[in-house]
Write a structure and sequence with these properties.
Its EC number is 1.1.1.3. By secondary structure, the chain is α/β, with parallel strands linked by helices. The protein has 12 helices and 12 strands. Helix 7 crosses helix 8.
Length: 326
């Protein structure tokens, strides 16, 4: 049996998925004991030149994707729509879904997870929160007995890179942002990152996973990093502190609460040494105490890595379930 794969979106992440499936093809096939075939790639502009083999259908029509067998859809589109519509279509078609779309999943994740259960398929969303850092699976599978008291995280690699440049190299915000854009860490319009919306969506996904609920979005304090000046950085350095953009999720009186804001951290804080495009989560639990997970948080390959790890997980899990009934 060959696993048939469709990629929705062929921007930075979609290209990273394609590259990873090719460079690690033999390794993945060995792990799954079956080959993988990319059958379709959904794009915005079919006229754009792409170095893709003729055997892969490149289309702008989602219905053409499902006119042939599809076992799993890797969704790497930006924004809520049409991503939500396409993911819903994939689930109803009977395909597993792996997504990197944090805005879409923050809005519709609970509904999509229920829909997936109804259709006996699985949704992987590791890539929505901390790039290549295995946060979702750690919380979902390894912290089932522990009660999570709070989560603090640096979950936007772009903002962290900018603050690191301002701290280590005394760059202005504008110069640090330009460097992030030149390295491909920031978009031409960086608002989603530097104004905190990307971190906000990730915090809502983490809250849903940890507490099976999200805060009232209107009550979440949200502040980006545009207001952090070189003078602010210098004052923090003199005090032995660093500015970090931190998402905090916690239970208060039985309900989740969250804030996303710049904070000055002391050197004994677990997020103090998280620099560059690294992401990290510090999770406070009732039994283990504090654990910290860190790893790359920006760039196409860390995100693609998380998606491919989800792909392996779902089919390995499927094989195990099938073996139980043999």
């Amino acid at each position: 049996m060959t696993i048939k794969v469709a990629i929705l979106g062929f921007g930075t992440v979609g290209e990273g998925v394609w590259e990873t499936l090719h460079t690690h093809h033999e390794y993945i096939q060995k792990k799954l004991s079956t080959p993988i075939e990319i059958t379709s790639i959904l794009v915005k502009d079919s006229n754009k030149k792409r170095n893709l083999p003729d055997s892969v259908q490149v289309t702008t029509d989602i219905e053409e994707v499902f006119q042939q067998p599809v076992d799993v859809v890797l969704e790497a589109i930006v924004g809520k729509q049409p991503a939500y519509q396409y993911v819903t279509r994939a689930i109803e078609h009977g395909a597993h879904v792996i997504t990197a779309n944090k805005e879409m999943f923050a809005h519709y994740g609970p509904h999509l997870l229920e829909l997936a259960k109804e259709h006996n398929v699985w949704i992987g969303y590791e890539a929505t929160t901390a790039g290549g850092t295995p946060v979702i699976r750690t919380i979902d599978q390894m912290l089932q007995v522990n009660q999570i008291k709070s989560i603090q995280g640096i979950v936007n690699g772009t903002s962290n890179y900018i603050l690191t440049q301002m701290t280590k190299h005394q760059n202005s915000f504008e110069d640090a942002l330009l460097a992030a854009q030149q390295k491909g860490y920031a978009e031409a319009d960086p608002s989603n990152d530097v104004d905190g919306y990307d971190a906000f969506y990730k915090a809502m996904i983490l809250s849903q996973l940890a507490y099976q609920d999200q805060p009232n979005w209107d009550e979440v304090y949200l502040e980006g990093i545009r207001t952090i000046s070189s003078q602010d950085i210098d004052k923090a350095t003199i005090q032995g502190q660093k500015w970090k953009h931190v998402a905090t999720i916690e239970l208060r009186h039985g309900a989740p609460r969250a804030s996303i804001q710049p904070m000055q951290l002391n050197e004994d804080h677990p997020l103090y040494n998280i620099d560059g495009v690294e992401n990290a989560l510090s999770i406070q639990t009732d039994l283990l105490g504090s654990i910290t997970l860190s790893g790359p948080g920006a760039g196409k390959l860390p995100t693609a890595s998380a998606m491919i790890e989800d792909l392996l997980y779902v089919f390995q899990k499927e094989r195990q379930q099938e073996a139980q009934y043999v």
